[in-house]
Each structure stands twice: as structure tokens, then as C-alpha cells.
Specification:
Blueprint lengths: L1 H15 L5 H13 L3 H15 L2 H14 L2 H17 L3 H18 L2 H15 L4 H17 L3 H16 L9 H18 L2 H17 L3 H18 L2 H18 L2 H17 L5 H17 L3 H66 L4 H53 L3 H7 L3 E6 L7 E8 L2 E9 L3 H21 L3 H15 L12 E10 L4 E7 L3 E4 L7 E3 L6 E2 L11 E4 L5 E5 L7 E2 L4 E2 L2 H10 L5 H16 L8 E7 L1
Antiparallel strand pairs: 1-13, 2-3, 3-4, 4-5, 4-8, 5-9, 6-7, 6-10, 10-13, 11-12
Length: 653
């Protein structure tokens, strides 16, 4: 009977914690002073510990529980102290107390508490030790199943699915297992859960279907989630699912259907009394891209401007106070400067007048000369003032133009970033991979490209003519033309031939003297993940392969011809197919890394040294390889200027 009282009070404690208020805290402290017995005091101390983040109250509860020799009271107190450290992100301390509480609960048979303890321990291990987290999640699932607590079981099934999906930590992606657990969680929530919980499960399940290439199945879940959100009037979920559905239609090229859902999302966001500028920014950007695909550039421009305005508003919230202070400081300094100049001028005039009086009285004959001298000085002073005013005006014009140019380049950076694939997409398909991308200027003439179709992944490292803004514009054109080529061809050599035609057509290149000669070098790979087969084609950029446990680099040379420029319209590019094994590494890159000057003698790094570096780090993970290459490049460059954009991509199968 005593145990059940403690369990009831424990449930009250954790259900109450989300409604903590200062007035309630004061009431609890008054109750502590008049508590009829130690059992009630324990519960009150634990409530205060939760509400006020008071470690001494948790320790006081533990003392009383030990005094009463209450095994359940001791277990709850130890667990609550662990919760205190968990909330403070003191995870080592939290694990220490959770381990003690787990032993007490296992010995006392307190399964209600065990499920929660296993879950929290799993949360702590999840980011860095997903395998250990999985063990505790499965323990928690076993306990809640024994207690027939189905809704809690749905949360644990979802958490286990997260680990298998690779959402947390570095555990190898296992979409099949993730889908199995997500579907079980969804089935329970559709019977018992709230609409928000069902929507969360639909999102998780659809994510796996989309990653596995079953877009139609994923889309059916998005539609189902949207219907639920519309029924309960959940604006955030409506926007979320409309965005997903809109993106799906956009990728398929059905821009009218994409606009239908994107506009629905826009209406929901716009209808809020308080605009969420982060969400509005995402919706506006998606609409701008879709309208540009429909060649409705007026609408596209409107939504690009809205996208920029949202981002400016978000930045202004943090910059506003400092901007106001800066303006006030500048105004004060200018006013003080003006007053000082005025005083100096008055003093100068007084001196001139006094000099004139002295000269008039002492040297009447030289009066004319003095007056002439004064006029000359004043004329020179005025001319100097006019010259200074012109210089100030010119300086302001230069400042304004410089700011306008810099703002334009930063806007170009946003556009270029939007055209680059998210690295999370690459990591989802190739867990052991890296992208090392260091632009020379704000924007880059190098870019990387990614595409996935069923079990085939496409990767490209591209070096456009020039760097900075000209190179950036070329990179955007190149990315679009690669997307076009991927829609009609999957052979790398044929894709490069289509890319060559597309670039020449986009830049209107011909044999005429006035025609542009801009182009790009590229290494393009397609990887059949099921069979470890790699196909490669290159335009002046090679492919390097390092077999597992090998100390040499296999180099597959590119076709010695660039994309665009003076290349013939019917230029062909060779496709090479290589059979790889699990554990093999391959690399594609531009010439920026090996062309950097530096080192003790300020010399170029060279291809030979770059190969030696890659061979020396083969025993490391791909992320560690990226860190090493980044650090080495920075150290090698030293105080010298970066000479070119840098792009290196590595993959371990």
C-alpha cells in the first residue's frame, strides 16, 4: 500500500513539472513547514527540487527516505537528483545517479520507474554512442510492454527507429529496420495517440520511404499528415507537410502542383498575427524557385525580395540595438567635431583682427600688404574647405558603392549556396564520405553536385573558369545543366556530352571572336551501391582510387578537353567502369588544393605531395580525413594568400 502511495505521488510530481509557477512554489514551501509526516515531506522536497532546480531539496528528500528506510522513496530521490544533473547537461553526474537508481529499482521491482530510467540513459548515450542507446531503448520497450503501456511503447519504437535511421550519432544507416519500428509506432498512435503524435510518426515513416526511393508511398503519408493537420487546425503541421508535398512535385517537374501546395503554406503563414519569419523565409524561397522554373520572373522576383526581407528582419532583431547605439555615437562625435571647428574658426578670426589692429597702429604704410595677405590666406582656406568637402563626398560615394557591391556578392553567395546540395543528403546516401569546400573569395568558382536515383548515387567535383563572382555565376549555370543532363541520361560520359552542349547553348558560345571562352573542368562519378560498381568520366579532372590496405593510388585519367569554351558541340567523353570492394576509397577534386603555395619555402604543394598526404591518412575515418586535410591546408598556406578555390570529395565504400 505504501508503494502505491509513493507511485501516485510520483506521477503527480512529473505531471506537475510542466505547470511550474512561482506562486505554486511558494505554496509548496509553506506546505513543507506544516507537513504531517516525513513521507509527505519527501514528495514536497522532490517537487521543489524539480520546480526550483534545487539540488539541496533533492538531497534532503534522500536523507528522509534513508531515515524511513523506504526503498521506493530512496529510488525516487536518487532518480530525481539524476534528473537535476540531466537538466543541467551534467551528463556524467546524471549517469552516475541513474545507474544507482536503476540498481535500486531492479532490486525493488519498480518497473514503472525502470522504463523511464532506461529511456533517459538512452537519451544521454544517443548522440555519441548509438549502440549503447539502442540497448537501453530496447530495455525500456520491454518494460513498457510488460506494463501494457502502449502509448509509451510508441515513443520507444520511434526512438529505436531514429537510431537505425542514423538520425543520431554515427550508427550505420539501416532503413529497413528503421521503417519496421516507425510503422509499429504509427500503428499504435493511430489507435491511441493525439493528432500531433500521429503526424510525427507519419513524418518519420515517410522519410524512410523517400530515402529508399519510394516517393509515391512517402507522398501518401504526407497527404495523410496534411489531412490530419487541417482537421485539427495545426498551422505549423499544415505548412510542414505542404512544403514536403510541394518539394516532391517540384523535383518531378510538376511546377503547377508544387505551387498549389506552396501557396497553401504561404497563406497559412501569412494568416498568423505574429509572423514566423524563419518559416516565411523558407516558403518564400521555395515559391521563388518554382516561379522561376515557370519563367514567371516577376513573381519569382517578388518572392525573392520577400525571402530577403525575412532574412533582413531576422538579422535586424539582433543588430538593431547595436545599430541604434552606433548611430547615436556617430551623431555625437560629429556634433562635437563641428563645435571644435567652429571654436577654432572664431579664435582664428580674433587673431586676424588683433593682428590687423596692431599693424594698422604700428605700421600704417604696411596696412595694404597685411590686408592683401589676409585675403590670400582666407581664399586659400576656403579653397581647402571646398576641396575637403569634395573629398568627403567622393569618400561617401566610394563607401556606398563598396557596400552595394559587397551586398550583391553576399546575395550571390545565398543563391550559390541554394544551388549546392545539402551535405546531409550526401551523408544519408554515403555515410563514410566528406566534402572539403574552401572558397577563395566570398563566392566560389568551384562547386560540388549530388544526385540520387534508386540505388545509384551521382557525385561531381567541378572547377569553373575563374573564381569569385564570375566563377559563381558559372557554377550556378553548371549545376542547372547537370540537373538537366541527369534527367535524361545516367552514363557519366554521355552526361558530360550533354553538359557541354548545355553550357555552350546557355552562354551562346561559338567560333566567333566575340564569343565567351568560359568553361569548366569536372570529375563525374556514378556509384551503384548494391554492386559496388563505379562509373567515371572526366573533363581534365582525374579520379583517384585507393584500395583497402593498399599503399598506392590508382589514377583514371580524364578526357583532355574542357566543358564549354572552344570545345566542339559534338565532343565525346570517355566513361570508365571500375569494380570496387567494401573498404575501398576514391577521391575527386579540383586543382586548388595542390596548387596552393606555402610550406617552409613558400613553394607549390604539388600533386605528388597531395598523393602522399592521402596515402598517409587511409587508416582514418572520412570525417577525420577531412579535418586533417583542412588543418594541413591552413598550416601549409600560413600567412600567404589563398590562390584558388579548394574542393576535395572523398568516399569510403
Amino acid at each position: 500500500m505504501k508503494k502505491r502511495i509513493f507511485y501516485f505521488l510520483f506521477l503527480c510530481l512529473y505531471s506537475f513539472s510542466s505547470f511550474a509557477q512561482l506562486s505554486r512554489l511558494d505554496s509548496l514551501k509553506r506546505q513543507l513547514a506544516t507537513a504531517p509526516d516525513d513521507t509527505n515531506k519527501i514528495v514536497l522536497y522532490l517537487k521543489v527540487c524539480m520546480l526550483a532546480d534545487s539540488l539541496p531539496c533533492g538531497e534532503e528528500a534522500l536523507k528522509l527516505a534513508k531515515k524511513l528506510d523506504s526503498k521506493e522513496g530512496i529510488a525516487i530521490s536518487v532518480m530525481t537528483i539524476g534528473d537535476f544533473h540531466y537538466r543541467k547537461q551534467q551528463y556524467d553526474k546524471a549517469l552516475e545517479y541513474y545507474a544507482k537508481a536503476t540498481k535500486l529499482c531492479e532490486a525493488g521491482g519498480f518497473k514503472d520507474y525502470l522504463a523511464r530510467l532506461y529511456m533517459h540513459i538512452g537519451y544521454i548515450y544517443r548522440p555519441n554512442e548509438p549502440n549503447i542507446a539502442l540497448e537501453y531503448y530496447e530495455k525500456s520497450l520491454q518494460v513498457v510492454n510488460e506494463l501494457k503501456d502502449e502509448l509509451s511503447a510508441s515513443y520507444m519504437l520511434s526512438a529505436i527507429g531514429n537510431v537505425y535511421e542514423g538520425t543520431y550519432g554515427t550508427k550505420t544507416y539501416n532503413g529497413h529496420n528503421a521503417l519496421e519500428y516507425y510503422e509499429k509506432s504509427l500503428e499504435i498512435r493511430e489507435r491511441l495517440g493525439s493528432p500531433e503524435e500521429i503526424a510525427a510518426s507519419l513524418n518519420e515513416t515517410s522519410r524512410i520511404y523517400e530515402q529508399s526511393g519510394n516517393v509515391e508511398k512517402a507522398a501518401s503519408f504526407w497527404q495523410k499528415g496534411l489531412s490530419i493537420a487541417e482537421k485539427i487546425g495545426s498551422g505549423n503541421n499544415i505548412v510542414y507537410f505542404c512544403n514536403l508535398i510541394g518539394q516532391s512535385h517540384y523535383r518531378k517537374g510538376d511546377y503547377s502542383k508544387a505551387l498549389e501546395y506552396q501557396q497553401k503554406a504561404y497563406k497559412v503563414v501569412s494568416a498568423n498575427k505574429v509572423i514566423d519569419y524563419t518559416i516565411m523565409s523558407e516558403v518564400a524561397y521555395a515559391l521563388a524557385l518554382t516561379y522561376s522554373k515557370q519563367e514567371d520572373y516577376k513573381k519569382a522576383t517578388e518572392y525573392y525580395e520577400l525571402y530577403n526581407a525575412c532574412n533582413d528582419t531576422l538579422r535586424a532583431r539582433t543588430d538593431n540595438v547595436s545599430l541604434v547605439n552606433l548611430k547615436h555615437t556617430l551623431a555625437t562625435e560629429r556634433e562635437q567635431e563641428h563645435l571644435l571647428l567652429k571654436d577654432a574658426e572664431i579664435e582664428k578670426q580674433k587673431a586676424i583682427v588683433e593682428t590687423q589692429i596692431v599693424l594698422r597702429n604700428a605700421f600704417l604704410i604696411g596696412l595694404g600688404l597685411v590686408i592683401a595677405l589676409v585675403v590670400f590666406i582666407l581664399r586659400g582656406y576656403r579653397q581647402k574647405q571646398k576641396a575637403n568637402q569634395k573629398l568627403e563626398g567622393a569618400y561617401k560615394i566610394i563607401e556606398e558603392k563598396t557596400k552595394a557591391i559587397t551586398d550583391s556578392i553576399r546575395y550571390a553567395l545565398r543563391i550559390q549556396r541554394a544551388s549546392l546540395p545539402h551535405r546531409s543528403e550526401i551523408w544519408a546516401a554515403l555515410q563514410q564520405s566528406f566534402v572539403l569546400y574552401i572558397p577563395k573569395d566570398i563566392v566560389s568558382g568551384d562547386f560540388y553536385w549530388f544526385n540520387k536515383s534508386s540505388s545509384t548515387v551521382f557525385l561531381a567535383a567541378v572547377d569553373c573558369t575563374g573564381h569569385g563572382v564570375p566563377g559563381a555565376f558559372m557554377s550556378i549555370v553548371g549545376s542547372e545543366r547537370l540537373n538537366d543532363a541527369a534527367e535524361v541520361e545516367n552514363d557519366p560520359g554521355k552526361m558530360l556530352a550533354l553538359l557541354n552542349k548545355g553550357i555552350k547553348r546557355s552562354l551562346r558560345q561559338s567560333e566567333h571572336a566575340e564569343s565567351t571562352r568560359d568553361g569548366m573542368d569536372i570529375a563525374l562519378c556514378s556509384i551503384d551501391l548494391d554492386n559496388y560498381r563505379l562509373s567515371y568520366a572526366g573533363a581534365n579532372r582525374p579520379l583517384w582510387i585507393i584500395r583497402k590496405d593498399s599503399n598506392t593510388i590508382e589514377e583514371i585519367k580524364a578526357t583532355k578537353m574542357a566543358i564549354g569554351g572552344l570545345t566542339r558541340d559534338d565532343q565525346s567523353f570517355d566513361t570508365h567502369t571500375v569494380q570496387l570492394q567494401k573498404g575501398d576509397n576514391f577521391y575527386i577534386f579540383t586543382d586548388g588544393y595542390m596548387d596552393q603555395f606555402g610550406g617552409p619555402e613558400g613553394k607549390k604543394m604539388t600533386t605528388k605531395r597531395f598523393k602522399e598526404i592521402l596515402l598517409s591518412i587511409q587508416d582514418r575515418t572520412m570525417q577525420d580525413q577531412r579535418k586533417y586535410l583542412t588543418t594541413f591546408a591552413e598550416s601549409w598556406k600560413g600567412n600567404l594568400e589563398q590562390v584558388d578555390d579548394i574542393l576535395v570529395m572523398g568516399v569510403k565504400l
